[in-house]
Specification:
By secondary structure, the chain is of the alpha+beta class. The protein has seven helices and nine strands, in the order αββαααβββαβαββαβ. It has helices at 2-13, 37-46, 49-56, 62-71, 118-132, 147-155, 187-196; strands at residues 17-21, 27-31, 77-84, 87-96, 102-109, 137-142, 159-163, 166-172, 202-203. Strands 7-8-6-5-4-3-2-1-9 form a nine-stranded mixed sheet, with helices on both faces. β1 (17-21) and β2 (27-31) form a beta hairpin.
Length: 206
Amino acid sequence: MFVTSRNSLFRRSLSGLVFRTEDGPRVELRGLTEYDAKEHAGHLKRLSPQDRRLRFHSMMSDNAVALYSRRMDWQHALAFGIFIDGILRGVGELLVADGSDDGEISVSVEHRFQKAGLGRVLVSALVLAGRRIGLKTAHMYFVPGNERMRALSRAVGAKPTFAGGVVESVIDLEPPADRTPLRSGGGRRGWLRNLLGLRGNRLRIM
């Protein structure tokens, strides 16, 4: 059921959503698949040592990062990437165990682009996509000093708790009873744009 829903979802999102920017770069949000594993690993390798530690909660070598990308369960993962001028600069992942109705969200954005709002776009895409395929909750785990992840979790209404040296924020994905169901019309780009509630959205890339 999850794989069927995921595949249907990603058939609509793979062509991507292109953002307008004030200063020229082409910014595209689209779903990632196993065919993007090389670009996925390249993005993670470009993270600064500090950002890599925050992403994985420990130091990771280039070889370990490459292994993570190769072994990622792409058939059971929802992943979105933000490409800037064709290069993958930000990734959001929603990992779901087989048969489960909750998942785990992680986000990484390369240092140069961290103040452009990319993390919030990625988390919003994952939250709405998780809701669309019927997940009930999603979890975000981060170390206490990771203020960017704390801000992202607050932005989507997550409820934080502290345990075992990490902060766990739980996002309720069940939509309110009075929320209008998401429409699947409008083609691939139309679906993703409707999903995120974007209308000619602008980003500022420094």
